[in-house]
Amino acid sequence: MSTTKKFTYINRKAPYGSVYALESLEVVLIGAAFEQEVQLVFVDDGVYQLTKGQETDGIGMKNFSKTYAALGDYDVNQIYVCEQSLADRGLTLDDLQALTYEDEDDDWAEKSSMNLVNREQLSDLISDADVLLNF
Amino acid sequence: MALEVNGKSYEVDEEGYLANLNEWDADVAAALAASDDAELTESHWEVINFLREYYEEYQIAPAVRVLTKAIGKRLGKDKGNSKYLYELFPYGPAKQACKYAGLPKPTGCV
Lengths: 135, 110
What we know:
The complex is a heterodimer of chains A (about 140) and B (about 110). Helices cover about 20% and strands about 25% of the residues of chain A. Chain A is globular. In chain A, about 30% of the residues are buried. Chain A is an alpha/beta fold and about 140 residues long. Chain A has helices spanning about 20-30, 85-90, 120-130; strands spanning about 5-10, 35-40, 80, 100-105, 110, 115, 130-135. Chain A has a single domain (about 5-135), classed as DsrEFH-like (Hypothetical Protein Ychn, Chain: A), CATH 3.40.1260.10. Chain A is built from 3 helices and 7 strands. In chain A, strand 4 (about 100-105) and strand 5 (about 110) form a beta hairpin. With about 110 residues, chain B is mostly helical. Chain B is built from 5 helices and 2 strands; from the N terminus they run E-E-H-H-H-H-H. Chain B has helices at about 25-35, 40-60, 65-75, 80-90, 95-100, and strands at about 1-5, 10. Chain B has a two-stranded antiparallel sheet. In chain B, a hairpin with a 2-residue loop joins strand 1 and strand 2 (about 10). The interface of A and B includes residues 26, 32 and 74 of A.
């Protein structure tokens, strides 16, 4: 009865200029309840969604960047960030939140969810997905 | 809709969730519980306080599966199971406890 599908979410846009980033995050959190395999990809301006030290008081929006740190609790621990997109924006992995999860099968050891990928690995991720959602 | 507590009026949505989470305090929590004919004990407060802290840190109310796991880790295995949490919050631990904690209805609540 139960079939697990690989859900891959591609996040392409900056966090606050449009509603895409927040909508994507909410769908991911809701979808996590169905215990499917979930992968998040951050590419193009989407890499800004994970930057540290976001401050939204000036634009009157909720700072939802803190919520990404809860993804590990939802068993969403496969986060892929496009290397080239970071480099194009003068960013490195150190500018992003270090998202982690606790591995239930390894005495709850804290492990990193973050993976840096190149264009080739990205296209493999996309072709391996059963369900692809673009935001 | 509005909820009256100690002569002050608080806005709530059609399901009774507090509109502004900054207005929440212990008296409001008790009044929200009273509107469901529930009374808050020390055990309820453990869960409610946990939810407030979780929201403060992550800006979301956790889904019930996440809540159960986290409570187990924080308060011990005898409390981190759905039986215990459903006994405390028979309308659904995440939904009902979040309501008394003054939080929005949890994301992923289906």
